[in-house]
Amino acid sequence: MSGRPMPCSPQEIGALFLFEKLTAEQLGRLCAEGRVEGFDPGPVYAEGDPAGCFYVLLEGTVVLSRRVGGDDVEVSRTSRRGVYAGAMQAYLGDRVRQVYNNSLRVTAPSRFFVLPADTFASIMREWFPMAVHLLEGLFFGSKSTQRAIGQRERLLALGSLSAGLTHELNNPAAAAVRATAALRERVGRMRHKLRIISAGTYDRETLANLIDIQERTAERVAKAPVLSPLEASDREDALCDWLDDHGIPDGWRIAPTFVQAGLDRDWLDQVAAAVDEATLPSAVGWLSYTVETELLMDEIEDSTSRVSHLVDAAKQYSQLDRAPFQVADVHELLDSTLLMLSGKFGQRIRVVKEYDRTLPRIPAYPAELNQVWTNLIDNAVAAMNGTGAEGTLTVRTARDHDRLLVEFGDTGTGIPPEVRDRVFDPFFTTKPVGEGTGLGLDISWRIVVNKHHGSLRFESEPGDTRFQVLLPLTAAPPDETTEEPV
Prior knowledge:
Elements: E1 4-6, H1 10-14, H2 24-33, E2 35-39, E3 42-45, E4 53-59, E5 62-68, E6 71-78, E7 84-86, E8 103-106, E9 110-116, H3 117-127, H4 129-199, H5 204-222, H6 229-245, H7 251-260, H8 265-274, H9 280-318, E10 326-328, H10 330-340, H11 342-345, E11 349-354, E12 362-364, H12 366-385, E13 391-400, E14 403-410, H13 440-451, E15 455-461, E16 464-472
Parallel strand pairs: 11-13
Antiparallel strand pairs: 1-2, 2-9, 3-8, 4-7, 4-9, 5-6, 5-8, 10-12, 13-14, 14-16, 15-16
Helix pairs in contact: 3-4, 4-9, 5-9, 6-7, 7-9, 9-10, 10-12, 12-13
EC number: 2.7.13.3
InterPro entries: cNMP-bd_dom, cNMP-bd_dom_sf, HATPase_C_sf, HATPase_dom, His_kinase_dom, RmlC-like_jellyroll, Sig_transdc_His_kin-like_C
GO molecular function, one term: protein histidine kinase activity
């Protein structure tokens, strides 16, 4: 937006703190190559437009704002003469994208000294060559440092996740190995018992009854009820008494297995009625091996299913073999991240899920949202570990007008008031030296705000800190030419 041309006075601009050290000749050149413009209340330039001018306030009131999701968030409001905005990085040339990084408007009739971006760049390089070199080094050095530390943080997070996943995989894998070894032993004993039975003088009908009981026992194992410890203890005592009464040796060892399989006295009465007294001990032993093999196979199935579930969760977390931008279910993303980070929770942190399952799937970059969840959960766990007491992590989803809300609440120490304005700043961290890079929230903010056009905010007090991610329910297809924030 162009303003009204006005006279440029070297004395007036020389009185500004920005130009007070310049010579009369330099001030004259500024007025010759620049201009003074007057603006009525309204916009001066918009965020994202090509950065064509450098603006210095002479009089009036200016408001700077940034686009966050669908809203303009006010960053600064001032009437101080000499404040500047606009093409402040013109001296970097085409090595950076020359666009306005914020929007500028005036709330009262205002005047600016306006310098074209190319003129501002040439003057900076001509008058202040050393300063330009220092600024270039600071700018690109900061970018390089941020990129390197960001990669380091991702590697540290990957290492932590890998350790947690390995731990989670080790438990079911080890259980499957143990169960397989035990199953091999039980099958060997079953073959031995079968040899004894086949060498006996059992008639065809008795053998048929045994096989029928074996089949029905296997079916009963699959439908075994879950008993309380007291119910299981009472049933074990009853089965021990029955086995002792019928002369079955090692009843104390067999009874717990039968109880776990859902067998009771009535079932054993049916077995006793199907065979004669001499055959009963062999029949009970045969059924014991049958029950044990079924339970071991169930254990192997549960363990391998757990491994498969963990692998699926890891794949969901990393979004392997999936398009970067897709319509995703945030609950699947949250569950996979919680599972991947479950090794960090330990016994002291309880996880509560308050999901609104009626929420629709949303267009998003799932792998990057998982990175946001990881950063926020990691911070919450660190805050709760700092209290020395048990904690609760609450993950909640809900609809907030035309956006989807994902909230992470923790019962940790809270964020001190004096640092709340800095939590999203790059390299700022309250963690001990070596435990945090200060980029987690900065990366999360850029993923949520820049990449998904949402917003990230927080509320905090000791014992109740909540980080809220707000994501649009609908979005246009991504522009593949835009620069990614991370």
